[in-house]
Amino acid sequence: MHLNPIQLFDTESSTFTYILAAPGSPEAVIIDPVDRHWERDLRHLERLGLKLAYVLETHAHADHVTSAGKLRELTGATAAVPSGCGIATAETQLNDGDTIRFGAGETIAVLHTPGHTAGSMCYVWRGNVFTGDTLLIDGCGRTDFQSGSADALYDSVTGKLFALPDDSRMWPGHDYKGQSVSTIGWEKRHNARLADRSREAFVKLMGELNLPRPKLIDVAVPANQNLGLPHGG
């Protein structure tokens, strides 16, 4: 059963933040919150009568600073992060195959999907998959820094994400073209980087992108490894 998440957007980094909640309990989960929007996100929760149970990160981001630590301090939520991302200050280190439980019997399945970064995770909830920077609408995350690997990304997408049901709603970590949601089936058939492309062709394509270095990477990655809090905080 699909139950749509609440999708919020940061225009500066084109990052999507998601709030997950279901009938029967006020408990909610937030995925990939952005530091400058912590007040907005808390207002959303308050307006909907929700209590934050978990703050999830899909990876240690290079293009924005998370508000995970701030939200944890203010709400008492548990910070849950991919175990391979070096975010030592989070109390829950997630591994492939783990299950996050919240609300009235709600479960989120944890998929380790390395490629964009070595630790990247995707989260599956009620027919929705939150793909972070692993799979984007008609694209995918870059693989040229932060322990990235085009080979690993190809395996993660084709072996794990494309193995999900075709009608799974796919919610990306970013979008730069005004899109908001896709399906696994559409991406399997049409994704410009991955559909009908061999591993060798994909690795070659990713190696030739020659993208600029993220402006915030030297600030964002260390900050995000401390949940966005000042070190020592």
From TrEMBL:
SMART domains referenced in this protein's UniProt entry, alphabetically: Lactamase_B
Residue span, Metallo-beta-lactamase domain: 14-174
InterPro entries: Metallo-B-lactamas, Mito_Persulfide_Diox, POD-like_MBL-fold, RibonucZ/Hydroxyglut_hydro
Keyword Magnesium found: no
UniProt keyword list: Metal-binding
Span of the signal peptide: none
PANTHER family: PERSULFIDE DIOXYGENASE ETHE1, PERSULFIDE DIOXYGENASE ETHE1, MITOCHONDRIAL
Protein name, entry field: MBL fold metallo-hydrolase
Organism: Massilia norwichensis
Lineage: Bacteria, Pseudomonadati, Pseudomonadota, Betaproteobacteria, Burkholderiales
